[in-house]
Amino acid sequence: MIDFRKAQELVLQHAHSFGRETVALEEALGRVLAETIRADRDYPPFDRASMDGYAVSYADLQKGSRQFTIAETLFAGSLPTRPIAGGECYKIMTGAAVPAGADTIIRLENAEESAGVLLLPASLKEALPAATLPAPPDPSFPWKPFQNIARKGEDLVSGAVVIDGPCLCEPAIIGLLATLGHTTVTIERLPRIGLLTTGDEVVPADAAPGAVQIRNSNRWLLDAALQKTGVGLAAWAHAPDDRLVLRQLAEELLANDLLILCGGVSAGDADYVPEVLEQMGVQKLFHKVAMRPGKPLWCGVTKEGKMVFALPGNPFSCLVNMVLMIRPYLQACYGLPPAQPIGLPLEADRKKRSPLDEFFPVYVHGIPAKVTPVTLNGSGDIRLGRQANALALHPATSGDLPGDAIVSCYSFV
């Protein structure tokens, strides 16, 4: 048997891009950006007012001017009709361009306006609580050049790299791309994934099962788990416990970029999957991982570099291997680092049940966050740890865990 961490390493070593494609920006949400993005101009593209107030010349303030005639009012997107002269100012709104000749903005709260004239007090009025804004060192002269102005290019200069390397297109990234003028983007192509479930005892989900039959929940479980990563099944089939049929269907499904099999992978007399895959020329990377559930996992790679995951048939085992092996592999193929577990305190005692690394369903919640174990009656329990939102690890090297133990948690999200 192989340690699950070593198994992960072997899987990730065979990660590769499935290719790239260009899509409209509205189709990029949740996809992985695969191009370098540069600033098309300076950002801000002009000296920008960062709050409502009055734009004045700092030199006038230094000369002692405390009254200014308001030349005009500037809104975002507007330009002044003329430059200000000495003793004049602009009334300016947040987001507006600060014209040449004005290099300091005085907040509305720190000034008075009367009949088109700006009046500055002898000392700064405290517009916000002292705990929010620190008092200036000299209340009688609280201004400085470019105060309350976002300078041109202070965020980005034209040509600067904004996004370098693979990046998940979350809403903030979509907004950034639109700001930079990208209405189409190059992204990592999603893989075509084939799924082959197995077993004489398995019938379709819409069938009435016989006394010793079960419905094919794993087909739906794995498809849903894949869809949460942004990709669904391209094709699927079900094979009985028959070597010839199993091989025929597996070869057909290997026309896709990735193949997942479910069931028939352990040590039973009808567990033909490892034998058939190796006869097909799939190179075995490992078989059996020192963890519970999910121990019988088989993993291999074709000569073309296509990955094959053969999962045990118990539903919770499928879910564990999806979180620990398949999802990290897909992320690595897109160029993303695998999600790391987080350490959180366990809310209840847990007894060690085997000498293996044990993964159990938990509900992560609260402030500060804590981990509540979710009842599961073995990996074949059809409830699949309902209400759980993560897996927690009970390490092989640990004995029983006390209620305040810190455990590694792997999110289902």
Structure description:
This protein is an alpha+beta fold. Helix content is 18%, strand content 28%. The chain has helices at 4-13, 58-62, 171-179, 217-228, 243-253, 273-279, 315-333; strands at 20-24, 32-33, 37-38, 48-49, 53-56, 67-74, 88-92, 104-107, 112-114, 117-119, 149-150, 161-163, 167-168, 184-188, 193-198, 202-203, 214-215, 233-239, 258-262, 283-287, 291-292, 298-301, 307-311, 342-345, 357-365, 370-373, 390-394, 406-411. The strands form 8 sheets. It has a 6-stranded mixed β-sheet with strand order 8-5-7-6-10-9. The protein has a 6-stranded mixed β-sheet with strand order 18-15-19-23-22-20, sandwiched between helices. Helix 1 (4-13) crosses helix 7. The protein is elongated.
Largest sheet: 6 strands, mixed
Approximately how much helix is present in the residues?
10-25%
Report the end-to-end length measured between terminal Cα atoms. Answer: 28 Å
Strand content: 25-35%
- In quaternary terms, these chains amount to single chain
Count of alpha and pi helical runs = 7
What's the total count of β strands? 28
| Radius of gyration, whole Å | 31 Å
* Mean pLDDT score: 93
Low-confidence stretches: none
Give the CA-based shape.
elongated
What order do the strands of the largest sheet run in, or round the barrel if closed? 8-5-7-6-10-9
